[in-house]
Amino acid sequence: MRGGLMLVAGAALGVMAGCAAAPDAGVVVSRRYEPPEWARLVCTSWTPAGTCKEWAAGQSPERWLLELRGEGGVEGALRVPRAVWDVCGRGESFPKCGVPKI
Hints:
Signal peptide: 1-22
Keywords: Signal
Structural class: alpha+beta
């Protein structure tokens, strides 16, 4: 079972590595909030045979994302703190929109 979990994790990493990285600056195209989810189970204890002995519910963290369009039309989602997400609206320039105005 442990080997199967590693195989799935390795495949997921391979898929993520193939995705284009989000630009670190650009125009905000949209904003997205992803609430925490309790659907994930995590093995907390293994038997000597390599099977899971104890499971616990795990929670994915909530996330605030800005969909950006950067130079050359490159688009992608960038995870940002909630304070930045709250002040950066559609059509604004990131990261300028997230800088406090004095």
